[in-house]
Structures are given as C-alpha cells and as structure tokens.
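Lab notebook, bench 4. The sequencing result for the construct came back, and we need a structural model before the next group meeting so we can plan mutations. Quick request posted to the team channel:

Model the 3D structure of this chain.
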Amino acid sequence: MPRRMPRTVVRVLGTMEGECICILDHPPLVNGGVGHKLACDPNQAPFSDLQQSPLAAGAVLAAGQALLNDLKQQTAIAQALGAAFQNPGQLCPIYIYLHDAPRAELLPWECLYDPDPDLLFLSLRPDWPVIRMRQAQQQDGLTDYTLQPPLRVMAVLSATGDSIASAVSAQQEWNALWQAFTMNRPPHAMPVNLRVLVGEDALKTAIDQQAPQPGVEVQCDFISDRDQALTAIRDFAPHLLHFFCHGTTAGIPHLQLGTRADWTAQTAGSITITGSDLRDSADPHYQVWIVTLNCCESATQSRNARNLASSLVTVGFPAALGMRDVVEAKHAHLLTKRFYRALFEQFNAILVDAPPAMMEWGTALFEARQDLSTHAFNAPPVPPSQIAACDFKEWTLPALYMRTEPFLLKRIIPPLTTAQKIELLQQAETLQSQIVMVQGMNAPDDMKQDVIKDLQAKIAKIKVQLNA
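Done. Here's the predicted structure in token form:
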C-alpha cells in the first residue's frame, strides 16, 4: 500500500438549524479545538455578488478571502493550513468534506484566497488544489483499481432542446475531446478507445469521417432510447464517462439526454437518467472512475450541475466533475480539452507493474483553471492568471467531488492480441534458426557460446511475454 500524500481535510457539518460547523478532520492534531460555526452565507455579500453580471472588480478575490478567513477562525484548521503552506512545491490537496451541509455546498470553495503573495488563489497553484468530498451512501469497498490499456473513454454528447437557445450542438465539444487525446500525443502513449453516443446526424457524420490517428480508436452510435444508452455504457465499461447534455436538480437530480428523434423533432431531451440509474444499470461492476458533467450557457436547466456531481459521488462513483453555475460553451470546451489532456498525461506517467499510484484528481484541473482565468482576454496584454482571476469567476465553476476513500491505480500489461502472439512466435523461430546457424559456424567455441547465450536470453524473454 503506497503512503498517502499529505492532505488537509476540513469537515463541514450541517445542523438541524441549517447552520454549518467546521472542524479539522485531517491531519489529526493533539488539540483539535471546538467546532467553528461558519459565518459565510451564500445568499449574502460577498458571495451573492458573484451572481451579478458583470462582476464588480475584485469580486472573486473578496469571496475567496472571506471564505478562507472564516475557516481560519477554527484554531486547528488554521494550524493545518499554515503547515501546508510552509511547503510550497509539495502537493497537499485541500479537501472540503461536506456532510449534510446544503448551505456549505453553495459556497465557492474553489476560490479560496490568501493575500500572501506566495499563496493567493489556492486552486491556481499546483500545490493546493481544492476538492469537495462526500461520503458514498452505497459502499463498494473499492480503493484499488487497475489500468490495463487501452484507456476506455465514453462520451455521451446530446444537448437538444425545444428552442434555438436550448439546442446546443456538441461538435465543438467533440473537437475538444478529440484534441485532448490526439494533439501532441507522445510516441509511446497508451492506446485509447473512444466510444461516442450522439443525437445529431451531422455530428455522427463528422465523427465517422474523422481522420484516424495512431493509438486512438473511435466508434460512434446514435442514442435511440434510455435502455440502449445505459446498456451501451455498461457493455463498454468506460474508465472515464463524459456527458455533454442538459440536466436539472429539480426533484431528484438527473441528466436529460436527446435522442436522434428528439433532434429531428427539435424537442427537449426525452431521456432522464439519475445518478442511481448510472451506478446500478450502467456501471454495475464498478468500472467507471470519474464522471464529468459539462454544460454551457444555453443549457439553462443545468445550473447547479454541482448537485448532480455531488449526487454521483454519494451513489458510489469515485469522483465526479460538474459546474457550479452556467458557463459559456467556449469555456466548457476548454475545460474538456485541458482536463482530459492532463488526466491522460497522468495515466501515461504511471509505470507498468509499479506499486499502485495515488490518484489526486484535482491536480488535473490546475492547467484548465489557469487557462479559464485568462480566457476572457482575446488580445494582448493578457494578465497573469492570479491577477485575471480576481474579476473573472469562470475558472472557479468546475467543482470536483471525490469519495472519502483514496483512489489507488495500478497499471498492468495488456494481454497480447493474436497477431502479437504470432509475431512473437515468428521472432522466436528466427532466433532458434540463428542458434543452429551459429552452432555450425567455423569459429572458436567460446565465441559461439557467447552468441548462443545471447540468442537464448532473447528467446526466454519472448516466452515470458507469451506466458504473461
């Protein structure tokens, strides 16, 4: 079992009166102190100011600083954060463990801010990603997962609607996803299988006609009905599950997908899927590692997709990423491209058959948040991300949720294909023929034995591969 990385976990507990009490959950301190009642109210300034358009100058900074100052009123939390900040360059994620605290769910934890010039916005530093944590109500007991290439990625792309404003083509979302796994792809990167479900005819045609890329396989199908979509996800058993669709938190939080018929009729999506539907019907064998819910400005029902992401973790998914508020389509696409690119790099960096690696999903959001913080500047000069972030909230909107259990990932060698086995057998036969040829050569015996030993060692390596 690998040693767990340093982390700071702040538990926020909801009370019957609707208040929120924060305590230090990790690291354990001798004197943890008493719980502190959070004074921050999402419906009051400076947090309500984040709902204004346009934002006032410094609005994000004011909210982030007020929230961090409130946390530091609890002595143990202040000590733990201070200790973490003493080690810049060392990864120490900050987890906000939300325990039946609906008011705290509405606070913008992603914009925590310290005025120290070496700290500033914590989520815009690689050292201290801010991640939300929830306890899974459905326990599966899993902490160790296996990555046997190819990496399986499933994208469900269908945000139809009954108006021009609510029907959003997923073409640019697909482009961002494709670029994440193909642009500047390292020569020896692991293979990727992309399975795509869509509702748009034009999008399916574009995907089918996509120029092939080495190491990336793509299969695209239409969404026809609810059972077909859930069955397709279950049968493909993706590691990464991505949705670009509408969703709502009215009643039980659920996704709303458009079928091909919905797109043709220009109607709202006719398929509704809850987190429990996904876990029970689409992922009964617990193959999915993370679910991403991406939304855009026209997806008017997707406000508070954070609740959807939170519900996915409570039903048992290891991690989920959703938006705290509605975002422009261009920002949603940028998040897709940067986030999956960073995840892919992390997976490729895991050594084959090494001890399980501790996955900290929040580190994959660092570059995406940096780019989102400056994306509003279309022309030079573009300010540094820490400065631009003070007045621009889009970088804070992706909310990452994780379960309380660690996520350990071990990469193993994929099984050989029939073609690979045949090729190895042919190589072994060629080496054996070379041994016979060397034995018949007119050369000193010691020289021949050295050559034969080298050839026999190569044959032995091939046998190991064949028997793996």
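Residues 8-134 form one domain.
Will bring this to the meeting.
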